[in-house]
Design brief:
One of its GO terms (cellular component) is cytosol. One of its GO terms (molecular function) is mismatched DNA binding. This is DNA mismatch repair protein MutS. Keywords: ATP-binding, DNA damage, DNA repair, DNA-binding, Nucleotide-binding. The chain has 31 helices and 27 strands. It is of the alpha/beta class. It has seven domains: 108 residues, DNA repair protein MutS, domain I (MutS, DNA mismatch repair protein, domain I), CATH 3.40.1170.10; 136 residues, MutS, connector domain (Nucleotidyltransferase, domain 5); 139 residues, Orthogonal Bundle (MutS, DNA mismatch repair protein, Chain A, domain 3), CATH 1.10.1420; 100 residues, MutS, DNA mismatch repair protein, Chain A, domain 3; 204 residues, Rossmann fold (3-Layer(aba) Sandwich); 33 residues; 37 residues, no CATH class. The strands form five sheets. Strands 13-23-24-25-21-26-27 form a seven-stranded mixed beta sheet, with helices on both faces. Strands 3-4-2-1-5-6 form a six-stranded mixed beta sheet, sandwiched between helices. β24, α25 and β25 form a beta-alpha-beta unit. The longest helix has 34 residues. The N and C termini lie far apart (106 Å). 39% of the residues are buried.
Length: 883
């Protein structure tokens, strides 16, 4: 039997599929996106949907699966999160037009968009309070640059970025997708995979700097980029590759990208990936947002404000004037509590203007996006009117950006209904009275509906069938429907001369009449005409919005800035936070500092947080504190809270302390906590050493470093020697400010040898063999580590604890006596001496047995509160008699 030829539709599918390698193909067929062959197999498994088959190809069944068009966004989100890319092929013509070419003609289809992790714009696919960055890194003749954009908001930035800085910068941005030249894929694959971002290699031609400059000029409609700044060849290459990728994925509908902004590496505090992870800045170690610094301090009420907060926390400023201006805005709104609450109430009503504007620019928006623009601009005008003329500089600049859109607000207000549908094709979003032609057409359409109701009443009277209904669907149009029992009457004379049979279903029979067909034509024409008018008006309103896109974007950024300042002020008011003094010195002094995340967690349980002081390089005090004390005493919390206070101060926020003086911190380094990296074959100790090496090789004299338990992953003397040498290097070579926590008490001797080192310890109290953590940090050295006591708290068996005490006492005695005596002590320790019978329990007193009997006789569930209290007093009296 000859092999069946490939159908025209399947030939079209294969052609489109071949033109879009590396992506699943969503092939539009009516109300569904269908997938075939390997795409269907992969998609059905990823989406947990049924895998069916359709026809044959090369003698084999063609696998097929599909998803409804109206629910496609949810399926797209699942596929993107699982690492897929999706090419969306839409029907480019009405099927009726294809039929005019012949009964076997295929509807024209083409890919209108390539959906990738870094190019999402749909509200349902994005996290409202986080950016969705697409980044591109390029290297040309010894220069390298990183460009990044969020096409859902229009942000577009670029900076010089050598390969050694790529990992920290990508950790700061947390992009969803990174573009790399195919020639550098091997160099960057590990860096990108560590961030769990998608790596997209591109052809070398996409990174050509000359072609990039032309693409950028075409994007902004300018003859030269000089108006935006002076860009190096590597910067142009990175930006051009990013724009080239957007042209590829958006199929010519470029997003609304704002003018590119050049960033300087020296303008922000440098924080590497390990430090971000250790300090849990935007994500907790568990992987979620809860438990992070961002979650603890987020008081913003708008999506734009939340995204700005994450940017500030990820990249605290090093520009003193900018920091002080931000603090002044927070101070002003902290003092003006009534104004702050009014502003926050207005801000709560502000939609996400940036993302609505981006969707409109990409033709993925709808009436609700126009309403979002209208509502946002209305709230912006209200907020501008609230802020007084004497507001600080940044707030005054925001006020200037919020006004000037009254004509557009008036137009949108008159044109749109309060609650429009999601899609343009649904119609009904233009307000009555805005367009005379539309009102007339709607009247005709609505009158037709009344006529249909009257016709139904007439047919019921004519036939005597009360259950007769006139209905409508997309296949038959308007039709008369009745039950099969009643249909017999309509199929018989004389009614069969009026009612024309159209369709019989399982329980119903459908008819039509000539007058009904004529009315259907009138109604459909008016309904379609009304929708066409609304589409035309929508396009007109969208153009009016896009003409003001730059000003609307400025207003959106101003609203985000006000929201963040008000959020910081609200945080300070509710948490008793202070305004930090930030200057150009090397001081770092904190009085009664607290950890914002830990304090928040303790408040939920009703427990207080013990505040502590920290003083580095002020009035001749040392630049390094060597912190000793037992585990569980709070050393790591103390280290982290001071690092976070420095970060918050330079982010422009008040800080959790009674007083804080922070000299500008250029770099923040943290080596706290232990974790292995099995994927790369690194032990916990190896990871610790790699992170420590990065600190020692990079930290300058304006850095702030926190180190915890350096050297603990190896033998005691190896670890002690490494920790000792690291501290000496920080003091003598890096000359930075540092907090260094250790269990090696031998290191406390360094305080007497190195002029910039002072001992500090976490205070504990021992009572009846138990250790009580007071969480107070004091100057001085700990007398011992209390490791055995902490082990007891952890629940180690009593026999193990007792054996540990014996061994510890013997080892300490040998250490004091030194040399050969130390080895002799170790040799004298008997093996397995811990396996001893537990000491006999003390014999119970006779009185205890009597009390136990009386207690067992009580039944609390059957007693009244008064009876229970009386029984308790009786037991207490009996116990007193036995003493």
């Amino acid at each position: 039997m000859p092999e069946p030829t490939v159908t025209p539709m399947m030939a079209q599918y294969l052609q489109i599929r071949e033109a879009n390698p590396g992506a699943l193909l969503f092939y539009r067929m009516g109300d569904f996106y269908e997938m075939f062959f390997d795409d269907a197999v992969a998609a059905s498994a990823a989406l947990d949907i049924a895998l069916t088959k359709r026809g044959l190809h090369l003698g084999q069944d063609i696998p097929m699966c599909g998803v409804p068009v109206h629910a496609a966004e949810g399926y797209l989100l699942t596929l993107i999160r699982k690492g897929f890319r999706v090419a969306i092929a839409e029907q480019m013509e009405d099927p009726a037009e294809a039929k005019k070419r012949g009964s076997k003609s295929v509807v024209a289809r083409d890919v209108v968009r390539l959906v990738t992790p870094g190019t999402l714009t749909e509200e349902s696919l994005l996290e409202a309070r986080r950016h969705n960055y697409l980044a591109a890194w390029a290297e040309l003749r010894g220069e390298a640059a990183l460009a990044w954009a969020d096409i859902s908001t229009g942000e577009f930035r670029v900076m010089n970025c050598p390969l050694v800085r790529l990992a920290p910068e990508l950790a700061r941005l947390a992009p969803r997708e990174v573009l790399i030249s195919e020639t550098r894929e091997a160099d960057c694959a590990g860096i990108v995979s560590d961030l769990r971002a998608a790596l997209t290699p591109m052809a070398r031609g996409s990174f050509d700097s000359l072609g990039a400059e032309k693409r950028l000029c075409a994007l902004y409609g300018v003859g030269s980029l000089q108006a935006f700044g002076t860009f190096g060849r590597a910067e142009l290459s990175a930006m051009g590759a990013l724009v080239d990728y957007l042209e590829l994925t958006q199929r010519g509908k470029l997003p609304l990208l704002r003018a590119p902004v050049q960033e300087s590496a020296g303008s922000a505090m440098q924080i590497d990936a390990a430090t971000r992870r250790n300090l849990e800045l935007t994500q907790a170690l568990s992987g979620g947002r809860e438990g992070s610094l961002l979650a603890a301090i987020d008081r913003t009420v708008t999506a734009g404000g939340a995204r700005l907060l994450e940017r500030r926390i990820s990249a605290p400023s090093r520009e003193l004037g900018q920091i002080r201006a931000r603090l002044a805005s927070v101070r002003f709104l902290l003092e003006q509590s009534r104004l702050r609450e009014d502003l926050r109430e207005d801000l709560r009503r502000c939609p996400d203007i940036d993302r609505a504007l981006s969707r409109l620019a990409l033709d993925r928006g709808g009436p609700r996006d126009l309403v979002a623009i209208r509502t946002g601009l209305e709230q912006a005008a209200r907020i501008a009117a609230r802020l007084p003329a004497d507001a600080p500089e940044l707030l005054a600049q925001a006020v200037a950006a919020l006004g000037g859109q009254e004509p557009l607000v008036e137009l949108l207000g008159a044109a749109l209904v309060a609650e429009p549908p999601l899609l343009v094709r649904d119609g009904g979003f233009i307000a009555p009275g805005h367009d005379a032609e539309l009102d007339e057409t709607r009247a005709l359409r609505d009158e037709g509906r009344g006529v249909i109701a009257r016709m139904q009443a007439e047919y019921i009277e004519q036939t005597g069938i009360a259950a007769l209904k006139i209905k409508h669907n997309n296949v038959l149009g308007y039709f008369i429907e009745t039950t099969a029992t009643h249909a017999e009457r309509m199929l018989a004379p004389p009614l069969n001369e009026t009612f024309i049979h159209r369709q019989t279903t399982a329980n119903q029979v459908r008819f039509t009449t000539l007058p009904l067909n004529e009315m259907e034509t009138r109604i459909l024409n008016s309904a379609n005409h009304a929708l066409e008018i609304e589409k035309r008006l929508y396009d007109s309103l969208k153009r009016a919005v896009m003409d003001q896109a730059a000003a609307i974007g400025e207003a959106a950024r101003a609203l985000a800035g006000i929201d963040l300042a008000a959020g910081f002020a609200d945080l300070a008011a509710g948490g008793d936070w202070c305004e930090p003094l930030v200057d150009d010195s090397r001081a770092f002094v904190v009085e009664a500092g607290r950890h914002p995340v830990v304090e928040r967690a303790l408040k939920r349980s009703g427990a207080p947080f013990v505040a502590n002081d920290c003083a580095l390089t002020e009035g001749g005090t040392p630049a390094i504190w060597l912190l000793t004390g037992p585990n569980m005493a709070g050393k790591s919390t103390f280290l982290r809270q001071n690092a976070l206070i420095a970060l918050l101060a330079q982010a422009g926020a008040f800080v959790p302390a009674r007083r804080a003086h922070v000299g500008l911190v250029s770099q923040l380094f943290s080596r706290v906590g232990a974790a292995d990296d099995l994927a790369r074959g690194r032990s916990t100790f190896m990871v610790e050493m790699v992170e420590t090496a990065a600190i020692l090789n990079q930290a300058d004299d304006r850095a702030l470093v926190i180190l915890d338990e350096i050297g603990r992953g190896t033998a005691t003397y190896d670890g002690l020697s490494i920790a000792w040498a690291v501290l000496e290097h920080l003091h003598g070579a890096n000359r930075c400010r540092a907090l260094f926590a250790t269990h090696y008490h031998e290191m406390t001797a360094l305080a007497a040898k190195l002029e910039g080192v002072e001992n500090a310890t976490v205070r504990v109290k021992e009572w009846e063999g138990e250790v009580i953590f007071l969480h107070e940090v004091l100057r001085g050295a700990a007398d011992r580590s209390y490791g055995v006591q902490v082990a007891r708290l952890a629940g180690l068996p009593a026999a193990v604890i007792e054996r540990a005490k014996v061994v510890l006492e013997a080892l300490e005695k040998g250490e004091r006596e030194g040399g050969a005596r130390r080895q002799a002590v170790v040799d004298d320790l008997p093996l397995f001496s811990m396996v001893r019978a537990a000491p006999p329990a003390p014999a119970p007193s006779p009185k205890a047995g009597v009390l136990e009997e009386r207690l067992a006789a009580l039944h609390p569930d059957e007693m009244t509160p008064r009876e229970a209290l009386a029984a308790l007093y009786a037991l207490k009296a009996a116990l007193a008699e036995g003493e």
